[in-house]
Amino acid sequence: MTTQRTHDVVVIGGGSAGYAAARTARDGGADVAIVDPGPLGGLCILRGCMPTKTILRSAEIAALMRRAAEFGLSPVEAKASLPAIVDRKNRLVREFADYRIQQLRDPAYTLYEAPASFLTPHLLQVGNDRIAAKAVIIATGSTPRTGIVPGLDHELCMTSDELLDLRDRPESLIVLGAGPVGLELGQFFSRIGTRVTIVQRSPSVLSHLDRDVGGALMRALEQDGLAILADATVQRIDWTRAQPLVRLIRQGAEQTLSGALVLNALGRVPNIAGLNLSAAGVTVEAGRVLVDGGMRTSQPHIFAVGDVTNLYDIVHIAIQQGELAGWNACHPAAAAKTFDARLVTEVIFTDPQVAVVGLSENACRDKAIPCLTASYSFGDHGKAMCLGAMHGFVKLIADPATGLLLGAQIVGPEAGELIHELIAVMYYHGTVQDLLQIPHYHPTLAEIVTYPAESIVEQMRSL
Question: How far apart are CA 330 and CA 9, in angstroms?
Fold first, then answer.
């Protein structure tokens, strides 16, 4: 029997972005419903950040153990047990998910564990219930991109979702795509004994970042044992005796790769199938929900946050967007709070790590923004040498007139931690001169940021 209920705010999706939106709307005094068909927990906890970082830690330790002789220790034979690694990952994911489920089932919300579909801009079908809403926040996340290469739908061609549960280590793995997912999982499997080949269309990995960033990481990964085929376009995948044959064009010539498994790491797309957004009058372009700075869609009472907007596939940004949407949904008459992209940050958890914040050199050039840049190598940094972690560099981008820090890029040890000092300086609109005034303990990795800062100050003096 169909019943109709009414809520002030309905949040579709109970992941990081959706829960942030629901919590903010609740704190604003709204009657909030959360709709999620399950499994509850969200992409970050179940299939993204937490499980991948858990298994990467195992591979990092194995790689370091194999270097024991380099540090004057007896050689160690580190053999990885993939089932044990997966079991540890599952235990932690269950713990994280249980906590999120506890939050979602708080009596402060009404939780509907069913799929949602719009009937009208203000009315949703949720399981057997019809829900009327004053405001709706769409936070349904993303799914792996499929169907873009012929032959990609075979059972031995996996997405990251499926590969995370693999318990039998493959002898070989062909990774299609050199973004964060492909590189992190590719290096993981390489370090536990799988022969890994990464296929990419661009000249270097992480093609969305500055060329020197991708180039430095690619050299480090190749030294770590990964085979990387750059400037290669996959034509199709043929299957012979249950073995994938990846047909590609590289440097104008046809080439064929064979392996035990294929990882589809060609990106993700917004998860909007089944929402019936046309009935809601919500504009969708190129498969993504269009939003303004306040996360409003073409319907002023309907918002979209996180991966469905296809703006940034980064969890902390999805949370910020959720908080903005939650506040704006509860204050329709007030001036909207809007998203500030100045401090957009990304971290890739390869070894070495990659971390970036703010504007890149490419962005400054494309937007005709004057800038000065300077880099300093970890290979010439004392603490990095002590750690035996000398791949990569730190690069700062600053305004030539004032020294205002516009952006930063790090390829190197603990880049994901080091970037936060630079985020903090940028948050307070600090300068490269400020970086030189802030005390930096010696010897630490963090003091490396003072060297490119000093170089930029010298450039400013010469101007």
Answer: 8
- Residue that finishes a domain, picked among 266, 298, 322: 266
User: In DSSP terms, which residues pair with 302 in a beta bridge?
Assistant: 136
pTM given for the model: 0.94
In a domain, 345, yes or no: no
Residue 5 CB partners (closer than 8 Å, separation 6+): 33, 110, 129, 130, 131, 132
Same domain? 260 vs 273? no
* Coil vs helix vs strand at 455: helix
Q: For 215-240, what is the mean pLDDT?
A: 94
Residue ending a domain, among 214, 244, 266, is 266
Task: Please give the residue range of the domain that contains residue 361.
Answer: 352-462
Cβ neighbours of residue 371 under 8 Å, at least 6 residues apart? Answer: 359, 361, 364, 397, 398, 399, 400, 406
CA distance 371 to 334: 37
The predicted pLDDT at position 297 comes to: 98
Whether residues 358 and 329 fall in one domain: no
pLDDT at residue 287, rounded to an integer: 93
The label of the residue with tokens 């992190």 reads: 184
- For 370, the token pair is 């004057």
Is residue 9 located within the same domain as residue 126? yes
How much is the pLDDT for 251? 85
Do 9 and 139 fall into the same domain?
Answer: yes
- Cβ burial of 66 (10 Å; 0-12, 13-18, 19+) is middle
**Backbone Cα Rg of the chain:** 24
Task: For 381-416, write each residue's pLDDT tens digit.
Answer: 999 999 999 999 999 999 999 999 999 999 999 999
Interatomic CA distance for residues 110 and 133, integer angstroms = 13
The Cα-based distances of 375 to 199, 410, 448, 451 in angstroms read: 29, 9, 10, 8
- 77-125 per-position pLDDT tens digit: 889 999 999 999 999 999 999 999 999 999 999 999 999 999 999 999 9
Residue showing tokens 């516009």? 406
Total domains in the chain come to 3
CATH of the domain at 42: 3.50.50.60
232 and 137 belong to one structural domain: no
Is position 347 within any domain? no
